[in-house]
Amino acid sequence: MRKIAFLRSVGIRRADPYIQQAVRGLAAEGIEAGLFHTSGTPGDDDFPGHRHRLDRGITPLRLAGLVADWGADAAVSISLPCENALRDAAAASYLEAVGIPTVMTPLASTMLLVDKWETKQLCRRAGLAVPDGFRADAGLLAGRGLPVPGYRDALRAEAARIGYPLMAKPVWDSTSTGIRTLRTPAALDAWLAGPPQASAVLEAVVEGDLCSVDIVGRPGAYQVLPLCWTGRAGAEPVFTFADLRWCGPRPEADAAFEAVARDLVTLCGQLGVHGSVNVDLVHADGGFSVLEVNPRVGGATTLSCAASGTNTYATLARMARGLPPAHGPVRRAGWAVEFLAEDGIPPRARAALREAVDVVTVHELVIDGVSRGDIAVLTLPEGAEAATVRALTALHAATGFPGPDVLGKLTRLLVP
Ligand SMILES: Nc1ncnc2c1ncn2[C@@H]1O[C@H](COP(=O)(O)OP(=O)(O)O)[C@@H](O)[C@H]1O
Ligand SMILES: [Mg+2]
Fold this sequence. Notes:
Blueprint: E1 3-8, H1 18-28, E2 32-37, E3 50-53, H2 60-70, E4 74-77, H3 82-97, E5 102-103, H4 107-113, H5 116-125, E6 133-136, H6 138-141, H7 151-162, E7 166-170, E8 180-182, H8 185-193, E9 200-204, E10 208-218, E11 221-224, E12 228-233, E13 245-247, H9 251-271, E14 275-284, E15 287-294, H10 301-308, H11 312-320, E16 328-329, E17 335-341, H12 347-356, E18 358-367, E19 370-380, H13 385-399, H14 404-414
Helix pairs in contact: 1-11, 2-3, 7-8, 12-13, 13-14
The structure holds adenosine-5'-diphosphate and magnesium ion.
Adenosine-5'-diphosphate binds at residues 131, 167, 169, 173-176, 179, 203, 205-206, 210, 233-234, 237-238, 280, 291-292.
C-alpha cells in the first residue's frame, strides 16, 4: 500500500486538526495521501500531501478516473453533505470495479440514507423511534406525469391524522435548508399550492434537545462515538450552528442512549455501512427520535473526536489500509465545546484564546461557499469547568471575545 486518495467536497479545514494528523500518520508508515477535492485552495498546512483541485461539477466516473490515474491503492470518501456523499458512492463503485477498494457505504445504501423518507422507513423497521410523518411528492404536486386528483386531499388527511405543527423537510437537503414549519391546515394548503420545488417529508414536530452521534467502521466492527448536544429542537427550524454544540457529562441521557446505539449499529450492519454515518436525533421525554442518518462524516465529527480523544479520519485511513477498525462504544474523555463567532475572531484574541484554554481548532466556517464566521472547538477535563469559565471571562474582559452571548452560554453550560 503506497497511496491513499481522500475524496472531499467541502473545504478541508472543517476536518482540522484531525485530517492533518491522519495524513502525517500515513506518511510515517510510508504511505502518501492525496486529496481530490472540489472546494477551496488548501495549502500544505491544511493537507500535508498531494492535492488535486477538481471542478465542482466533476462526474463520479471522471473523479474515479483521476484517482486511478494517480495510482491510488485505496480511497476514502470524506465528502459532505449528502449530494456529495452520493457522488463519492458512485465514484466508489467505479473504483471498486477497477480494483481500488474504497471506504464508502455501498451506493445502494447511500441512495437510501441520503433520502429522509427512505431513512425514516429504515429506522422504523430497525425498531428506532422516528417522528410520525408522510411523504409529499413534488412531481405529483406539480402535475408532472400521471394526474392524481386525490393527491392533495390525501396529504391533508395524513396531516390531520398527525396534527399540527408539522415540519416540511426536503427529502435531500441539509443544514436545515428549505425546512418550513406548517402550523395550520391553511399553511399546509399554501405550501401545497407552491408547489414545493422538492419532494419533502412532512412530520410531527418533536420538542426536545438535539443531539448527534457518529458511528464509524464496517459491518461487525463499529465505533460509536459519544453523543454531542447541538441545540434545541422545536417548531422553529434553527441554523445548525446557532447554539453551543458540546459533548460532556449527561449520565441519564447517555444511559438511555445505549439501547438506541445498539439498534443503530444493527441498522448500519444491515446496510453495510462502510466508513462513517452521522445521526441526528432529538432527546425528549427520556427517549430518542431519529431525524436522519447521514451516510458520511458530519458537522459534529470534530466535536466527537475532540471529546473522545479519537480521530475519525485516522480510523478511516486504517480501514483504507485494510486494518480492522476498533469497535464498541468510545468513552468520552472530558468536555468538548464548539461555538461560532459570527463576526469572526480578532487575530489578537485568537492567540490569547490558545493561551487561556485548550483549543482543538479555530477556523472559518464556510457553508455553500459563504463564510458564516469563525468556529472554535475547545476541550477541558471534567473538574476544570470553573477555571475555564474564569479564563474565558478574563479573555472577554481583555479582548471583547467571546462575545457576551457566547460567554453567557458557555457559563451556563459549564457552571450551571
Ligand atoms: N421533527 C422535527 N421536530 C423538531 N425539529 C426538527 C424536526 N426535524 C428537523 N428539525 C429541525 O431541523 C433541523 C434539520 O433537520 P434534519 O432532519 O437534521 O435535516 P438537515 O440537517 O438535513 O437539514 C434539526 O436539526 C432540527 O433543528
Ligand atoms: Mg441534520
